[in-house]
Amino acid sequence: MIGIKRKILLLWIAISGVCVPSGAQVGDLRNNLAVGFNGGVNFNSISFIPRIKQNTMTDFNGGLTIRYISEKYMALICGIQTEVNYTKRGWNELIEDESGETYSRNMNYIEIPILTHWGFGKEKGVQVFLNLGS
């Protein structure tokens, strides 16, 4: 019984220490919303076991990008970015016989990544960006 009371007391002390209000340094607040388009090229192939001959399938992707920058700490900007992208992927298989026929598989996807957006560098100079997410 004493062991349970001791555990409850230690848990209460630990939770109390975590719940103490704390203050942090806040950077320059920004409300910067950017909306734009993105696009690119896909070079697709796929690995099979056993291996088959195939050509690289080339197609496009593109979509809408929305980015919100909320704070700036010295030379670091912090924000969030989301996209809605359409992409075409697949492969072209070369059938190894005298017919010379091919088989192609086309797959269409809608991707919605959500990313943290960090930028490093001077505001009116060169900046490097890092996007992390899924």
From TrEMBL:
Pfam families: OMP_b-brl_2. Residues 24-133 form the Outer membrane protein beta-barrel domain. This is Outer membrane protein beta-barrel domain-containing protein. It comes from termite gut metagenome.
